[in-house]
Amino acid sequence: TKFVYDFTEGNKDLKDLLGGKGANLAEMTNLGLPVPPGFTITTEACKVYLESGAEPVALRDEVSAHLDALEERMGKKLGQADNPLLVSVRSGAKFSMPGMMDTVLNIGLSDKSVQGLAKQAGDDRFAWDSYRRLIQMFGKTVMDVDGELFEEELEKAKRAKKVTVDTDLDAADLKKLVTRFKKIVKTEAGRDFPQDPREQMDLAIHAVFDSWNTDRAKLYRRQERIPGDLGTAVNVCSMVFGNLGPDSGTGVAFTRDPASGHQGVYGDYLQNAQGEDVVAGIRNTVPLAELESIDKKSYDQLMQIMETLENHYKDLCDIEFTIERGQLWMLQTRVGKRTAGAAFRIATQLVDQGLIDEAEALQRVTGAQLAQLMFPRFDDTAHGTKGIELLGRGIAASPGAAVGKAVFDSYTAIKWSRSGEKVILIRRETNPDDLDGMIAAEGILTSRGGKTSHAAVVARGMGKTCVCGAEELEVDTKRRRLTIGDIVVEEGDVVSIDGSTGKVYRGEVPVVPSPVVEYFEGRMHAGADDADELVGAVHRIMAYADRVRRLRVRANADNAEDALRARRFGAQGIGLCRTEHMFLGERREMVEKLILADTDTEREESLKQLLPLQKQDFIELFEAMDGLPVTVRLLDPPLHEFLPDITELSVRVALAESRQDSNENDLRLLQAVHRLHEQNPMLGLRGVRLGLVIPGLFAMQVRAIAEAAADRKNAKGDPRAEIMIPLVGTVQELEIVREEADRVVAEVEEQTGVELKLAIGTMIELPRAALTAGQIAEAAQFFSFGTNDLTQTVWGFSRDDVEASFFTAYLEKGIFGVSPFETIDKDGVGSLVKSAVEAGRATRPDLKLGVCGEHGGDPESVHFFHEVGLDYVSCSPFRIPVARLEAGRAAS
Ligand code: PEP
Ligand code: MG
Q1: What is the E.C. number (predicted)?
Q2: How far is the centre of ligand 2, averaged over its atoms, from the C-alpha of 789 (Å)?
Q3: Percentage of the chain with pLDDT > 90?
Q4: How confident is the model over 313-343, as pLDDT tens digits?
Q5: Do residue 388 and residue 329 come from a single domain?
Q6: Where among 501, 525, 557 does a domain terminate?
Q7: For all residues of the chain together, what is the average pLDDT?
Q8: Phi and psi for 576 in degrees, rounded to 5?
Q9: Residue 718, Cβ neighbours under 10 Å: how many?
Q10: Which of 213, 241, 262, 294 is deepest in the core (most CB within 10 A)?
Q11: Which pairing describes strands 443-446 and 423-427: parallel, antiparallel, or unpaired?
Q12: Closest-approaching ligand to the CA atom of 578
């Protein structure tokens, strides 16, 4: 294996091996751009080092050979006394981990070569300042010396001289400081600061390897879902200096505005400084455009290079550069991060510029970005308005814009929300006891924990706005208040939290609907403003996606209003109408009567009452979805969900008995509740089992569907009803229900004289159904995978409990990176889906296949369903655009 690559040997596609920084430095070198020469040690070398505790044997010689070549090229030797070559040793993993790993600059300086540098640069102060920086950085990162000790010494030197900034220390001061720094190293590390330049370099390389496994790097990787075994590459690069005087400097630049996507001159420049000074914020930077008046030649060259880079990468690039005495050097570039809106704009702009085609444009945006653009957001123009104050910033954990009164415990959250108040639940961190409070709140704010903290995971699962880990905020739950500096937020004060940016405000920030939703709703007005430009870009990308996708997209909806919205959002039918949602409110009592019925007459009576109501529901739904398929699922949930709570009822009955006025009805009810009470209701009397046990229930629902369809046909409509049987485990169950359904449909056809052609199919929600899909397809005209229940039953995870109980621990331990209820578990649940698809189609080649679990609207899962050959995905109305986009991305 080759462990070291010269910058001239790599290219941008070697990120696995050379890391992002190394691969792009090589790419720029080969484009002929001014990159300071150097070489990259591969991630493979790092992996060997981390696994075995020692660098690969061959590494030393390879590094020597590359160093020789570098010295030859530069005409000076590393650390040479009279004319030293200095290098930086920088980390650079495949994925950017900003600030997480180590870097050491000015390697090669020693007591001797510092003199040589002074001569080279013609600047004593500069040389001694560089040397003290090396000892400080090297001492801290390589020799594990507490960085504070150096800082204190530096402060002391400034105090002694009665100055406040580093630049007021002269060469003699810095020389003294070097002596003190060396003493610190000796005392703290128990050895002298190494004078041998090669030893400095080797130790720095090892330190960079080791920094892959620091706690903060590990935490960052876990939060960003970066695998822990990739390792980092190490870039050894000849030093250039931006701090050699006013004709030197350093800066960052973007080829486009990463916030809007607009082309122009974006970036910052700091004269007479090194990169570290910019990060440290020691002096204020100036806008990049001002470089033109500072150093026109370098500015023009930089603009030229930015154009070259954009045309080459065909994307927005960000850049770090340094100017050393009027000579421009490129230190880094990469395809830059951008906001969701900019991603859509840039993709279409690049198509217009002829740089990429439409298929590529689709790959430049994601469903997650589209989802982000669909959340309502805070009105930017409200900043600075009276009464609104930015308190701080945390981690944007679950998007959305939430406003409410501050509460500091779940009990208050529930109490206040019951009385109609909007509340924001503020906790140091949340735990499973807070679940009800989180549900009651508009949004959740915590001062601790990252993207995988309990609050973040649960909030995302509930689609609730969440900002977590806002560490500047001092949360005092005992005194029910939040402090930041001298600002105090008391219980009841209004706060606003932005789950897309992590910003936290005091006061009510006005919320505006997303222009992208206004567009999907057909309410977006014309007018050449910024929002229109975004909408134009979304419109075009959606059009590409719709053109190329194979998957159809349907909605989970059970009323006309949702159905109409779904249609506006592009739904091509309803994939799941949950009929239990039609029995809520006043109708619950009718179902209660049905359950309590002792005699056939009583039962038939309540079914007769329900029938016209159901029929009317379906008429409205079929009308809203005229011409498109509507899959109606027969009643699914455990019956006790329609009965009163067992504890509450028991208490009521006991109280009544003690007052000796017990009522007959309550007693009967209590008996029924006891009879129907189940330890595991999700595995109990529900789904098709209900239809088989309660005579007439499914028949009533089928009749309502059939009569509604007949009515719509008579009204010249085009109803396309499909009847779906839930929770089937064996073909026998389905056969019995089908026989009855076919009979009822035939009766309705006979009575109305209308030919109906209603398809009857089943959900695949149980492992047994998936495993016997070939048999089940004999009796089903379609399958719809109920991946919520299928995940529950394949994993044995209670879908109602686990996310709030132990999933946080599972996520933290990396057992899975994302809940299997959110993204389909391809290896387990997914492989059952795949084999059921194959077995079903083998029995019935024209079997229609879809999915209606939550996964139908999840980007990664949509790609999986495309791959296994489903015909459609069905998801909640709001996620339809995301599913359309991802189906397009999957197909292109
Ligand atoms: C499912 O189980 O995936 C499904 C869609 O049905 P429900 O969520 O109603 O149980
Ligand atoms: Mg289900």
Answers
A1: 2.7.9.1
A2: 5
A3: 72
A4: 999 999 999 999 999 999 999 998 888 889 9
A5: no
A6: 501
A7: 92
A8: -155, 115
A9: 12
A10: 241
A11: parallel
A12: 1
Of all protein residues, whose CA lies closest to atom 3 belonging to ligand 1?
A: 786
Residues 591-629 pLDDT 10s? 888 888 889 999 999 999 999 999 999 999 999 999 999
**Is 220 inside any structural domain?**
no
Distance of CA 542 to the CA centre of its chain: 21
pLDDT digits (tens, 9 = 90+) for 511-543: 888 889 999 998 875 455 666 889 999 999 999
CATH of the domain at 309: 3.30.470.20
Residue 174 lies in a domain: no
Q: Whose CA is nearest to atom 1 of ligand 1?
A: 786
Please report the ipTM that was assigned to this predicted complex.
0.99
Query: Are residues 842 and 757 part of one domain?
Result: yes
Q: Could you say which of 46, 66, 317, 454 is catalytic?
A: 454
Supply the pTM of this predicted model. Answer: 0.84
> Is residue 201 predicted with pLDDT exceeding 50?
yes
Categorize the per-residue pLDDT at 747 as very low, low, confident or very high, splitting at 50, 70 and 90.
very high
Strand order through the sheet with 103-107: 4-6, 38-41, 232-238, 87-93, 103-107
Same domain, 693 and 818: yes
Q: Which atom of ligand 1 is nearest to the CA of 788?
A: 3
Q: Average pLDDT in the 437-445 region?
A: 93
**Average pLDDT of the segment spanning 182-201:** 97
Q: Where are the alpha helices (DSSP H) in 163-213?
A: 171-189, 197-211
- Does position 24 have pLDDT exceeding 60, yes or no? yes
Flag whether 56 is in a domain: no
- For residue 46, indicate whether it is catalytic: no
Residue from 556, 574, 576, 725 whose mutation best tests the ligand 1 pocket (most atoms within 8 A of CB): 576
CA of 831 to the centre of ligand 2 (A): 18
Domain boundary among 501, 531, 560: 501
Tokens for 758? 């209603």
- Domains of the chain: total: 3
Q: Which ligand is nearest to the CA of 577?
A: 1
Question: Do both 682 and 812 map to the same domain?
Answer: yes
454 included as an active-site residue: yes
Residue 101 has pLDDT above 90, yes or no: no
Task: Looking at the structure, tell me whether residues 754 and 843 fall in a common domain.
Answer: yes
Same domain, 323 and 397: no
Of 765, 783, 821, 823, best ligand 1 pocket probe by most atoms within 8 Å of the beta carbon: 765
Given 317, 852, 863, 875, the catalytic residue: 852
Diameter over CA atoms, the chain? 108
Helices (H), 410-529: 410-418, 435-440, 454-462, 515-520
Atom of ligand 1 nearest to the CA of 855: 3
Question: Residue 526 has what pLDDT?
Answer: 47
Closest CA to 45 of 237, 218, 208: 208
Domain limits at 403? Answer: 382-501
Tell me, yes or no, whether 556 and 408 share the same domain: no
